[in-house]
Design goal:
The protein is mainly alpha-helical. The chain is built from 4 helices and 3 strands, in the order αααβαββ. The protein folds into 2 domains: 148 residues, Helix Hairpins (Orthogonal Bundle); 63 residues, no CATH class. The structure holds zinc ion. The site of zinc ion has 8 residues, from loops.
């Protein structure tokens, strides 16, 4: 009859491993939540930036618009001046030259008026675009708030569940000698969390190496903590896997 305590400890180690793996998977599953919240916030930030860019473009068009208006005003002043001078002109040549200058200024004003017309169209498009963006932004913000609220609630719930799992882990760990837990943790760290494996069929089910018959016998008797000579994992004989088979 094997010493019960060792068999019991091995069974507890198997349980401990299972719960630690469960905790690991669980933590992994909600690790994504803070990342999702950050993504949502950065998307909202992008909306804000696009709106700001739109506003800057509108400002630059406004200033261009004002400078065109000033150009026209300057030319109109000059035109009024030339019109007055027409009365005082003495020769036909001077008269013709003045008329030519008047025509040139009027032509330039026409071009500038065309440019102003295009700017007005552009301004209008930008305004429509910005109003649409602002409206969409408001909608996105409202949706984001709801989603972030949901995610935060989920995170809170997950934290509670995690606390329960951790308590369970502690309860199991309390049944195992500290030294064995340290050994278990060391192996688990090196072997992706799998520190205890079954040895049924004479092979280590961690690294699939054959176990020497004397060692396998020891494992089957269940009285001692045996580690795989190849991968160092702790080996146990899984009785449930042998049911219905003759040994
Ligand atoms: Zn092994």
């Amino acid at each position: 009859m094997p010493p019960k305590s060792q068999t019991f400890q091995l069974a507890q180690l198997v349980k401990l491993q299972a719960i630690r793996l469960q905790i690991g998977r669980f933590e992994q599953s909600f690790k994504a939540i803070p990342e999702e919240i950050a993504t949502i916030e950065s998307n909202a930030h992008r909306y804000g930036e696009e709106i700001e860019q739109n506003k800057k473009l509108e400002q630059s068009i406004n200033s261009q618009y004002r400078s065109y208006e000033n150009e026209i005003q300057d030319r109109n002043n000059k035109l009024a001046q030339y019109q007055n001078q027409l009365w005082a002109v003495k020769t036909n040549i001077e008269y013709a030259a003045l008329l030519k200058q008047i025509d040139t200024l009027k032509g330039m004003n026409e071009i500038t008026n065309d440019q102003i017309f295009h700017l007005e169209e552009e301004k209008e498009q930008l305004l429509i675009h910005r109003v649409e963006k602002e409206k969409a932004f408001e909608e996105v913000k409202a949706a984001n708030e709801k989603r972030v609220e949901e995610l935060e609630l989920k995170l809170k719930k997950a934290q509670k569940e995690l606390d329960v799992l951790r308590q369970k882990e502690q309860r199991i760990a309390a049944r195992i000698p500290q030294q064995l837990i340290s050994r278990f943790k060391k192996i688990a760290e090196a072997r992706e969390g799998i520190a205890v494996v079954s040895a049924n069929g004479g092979i280590c089910n961690g690294c699939f190496t054959s176990i020497r018959p004397q060692v396998y016998d020891k494992i089957r008797q269940g009285g001692t903590i045996v580690q795989c000579e190849s991968c160092s994992r702790i080996l146990f004989f899984d009785v449930s896997r042998e049911s219905g088979q003759s040994s």
